[in-house]
Design brief:
The protein is mostly helical and 75 residues long. The chain has a domain of 35 residues. 69% of the residues lie in helices and 0% in strands. It has 3 helices and no strands. The longest helix is centred in the middle third of the chain and has 34 residues.
């Protein structure tokens, strides 16, 4: 289902958008917004993980030590 919206562009953006043929503008804008929303969701997820990490206790040791311990436990 498609939805019609009114959007206001800066003059510089509009001038560049006018170079795109009329039949392709909606597709271009839809693709650009879709890609921006993916980036936006990823940034929000990263921020949420950062907040979660702040509330978690630090574990002793290093990643290298954990891998060696795990590797040694499977011998």
């Amino acid at each position: 289902m498609a939805h019609r919206v009114n959007v206001i562009f800066d003059d510089a953006v509009w001038q560049q958008l006018e170079e795109v043929p009329k039949g392709e503008r909606s597709k271009l804008i839809n693709q650009a917004v879709s890609e921006s929303l993916v980036k936006y969701r990823r940034l929000r997820a990263i921020a949420a993980l950062d907040e979660l990490r702040k509330s978690m206790p630090k574990l002793p040791g290093t990643t290298e030590q954990w891998i060696r311990e795990d590797r040694d436990s499977h011998e």
